[in-house]
Amino acid sequence: MGTFIHLCLMKDENHLNSKPTSYQEFANDNCHRLTDIQDNFKAIYSIDDYENWYYTQASEILRLYSDDKEIFFKYIPVGTYSKDSNTWLWAWSNKDSVEPRKLKTIKVKELGEQIGYEKLTTNHFEGDEYIGWELTSITFHQLGGIGTYRVVSDHLEKYFILTNEISKTEVEKIESNLIECESHGLMRTAFICQHLNNSNKTGFEEAFESHKGMELEEDVDFQALCDECEVQRPKTDGWNDESMNFAKIKLVCEGCYFVIKEFNVNTIHKA
C-alpha cells in the first residue's frame, strides 16, 4: 500500500522568507511552498481514499485503487530511497529504470551545479529520512506538476511527481503498445534480427543511438540488426523477401533489447 504524507515534516519548521543561504534552508523553503499545492491536490483527488497502488515504468502510469474505484496519473520518477542503506539514488542515474522521462530530472542536477548544492548533483549518497521529500519538493518546483506521491515496497521508497490525471481509456491505449515479458514485465517494444542474442556476439547495428529509458517519438521503436544482416541488406537493395527471410525480424521487449545490446557491444549509455 502506498504511503502519502504531508511534505513538510522538516528538521526546521520555520518558514524562510529570506533568500536561502544553505542547502537545508533551500530544501525547507521548497517543501513549505509545496504544502498548499499538495493539500489542494489531495483534496481534489481524494488521494487518501485509495488503499492500493501500482505503477508501470514503461508507460510511467501510477494507478491508485480500492475495491470500488480507481484513478490514474502520469508521473515523472524523482528517485529512490533505500531504508536498508539510508541512501538516495536520483532517477537520472538509475540504470535499471526504463522510465522515459527520468532524464527530465537532470534539470535539477544542472540547478545544483549552478548554486553549488552537492545533493542535487551527486547521483547516489547517504541521506536521512527527510531526503526523499526534500528532493521531490525541489524537483517539483523545477519541473511542475499537480502533486507528488511516494510508494513504499519492502525497504525501498520511490518518489514521483504527478503531472496529470489520465482516463482508463487513455491508459489502455498507451499500454496497448507495450508487451508482457516473462523476465521484465510490461515493457515497450523493440525489434531485432533473429541472429542477435546474449550468448554469441554477432555485432549490434542500431537504427539510431539508444539508451534504456530514452524518450521516443510516436511510432518509433528500438531496432537493431547483426553485422551480417547489415551486410546482406544492401546486397538486395534494401528490404525485400530475400533480406527479410535472412533477418527474420522478431519482437522483444525493451529490457531484453538492452541486455542483448550490452552483451554485444560491452557498453551502455549512462545518464
Describe the structure.
The protein has 271 residues and is of the alpha+beta class. The chain folds into two domains: 150 residues, no CATH class; 89 residues, no CATH class. 30% of the residues lie in helices and 27% in strands. It contains seven helices and twelve strands. Strands 1, 2, 3, 4, 5, 6 and 7 form a seven-stranded antiparallel beta sheet that branches. Strands 8, 9, 10, 11 and 12 form a five-stranded mixed beta sheet that branches. A hairpin with a 2-residue loop joins strand 2 and strand 3. Helix 1 packs across helix 3. The longest helix is centred in the first third of the chain and has 23 residues. The two termini are 31 Å apart. 32% of the residues are buried. The N terminus and C terminus are likely disordered.
Q: What distance separates the N and C termini?
A: 31 Å
Percent of residues in helices comes to 25-40%
How many domains make up the 3D coordinates? 2
Helix run count? 7
Average residue-wise pLDDT: 88
Main beta sheet: 7 strands, antiparallel
Radius of gyration: 22 Å
Structural class: alpha+beta
Element string (H = helix, E = strand)? HEEEEHEHEEHEEEEHHEH
What's the total count of β strands?
12
Backbone shape: globular
Report low-confidence residues grouped into runs of 5 or more. 1-19, 267-271
Percent of residues in beta strands: 25-35%
SSE map:
Elements: H1 23-45, E1 52-56, E2 61-66, E3 69-82, E4 87-90, H2 106-115, E5 124-126, H3 131-143, E6 147-153, E7 156-166, H4 168-175, E8 178-181, E9 185-192, E10 205-206, E11 222-225, H5 227-235, H6 241-247, E12 250-253, H7 254-265
Parallel strand pairs: 9-11
Antiparallel strand pairs: 1-2, 2-3, 3-4, 3-7, 4-5, 6-7, 8-9, 9-12, 10-11
Helix pairs in contact: 1-3
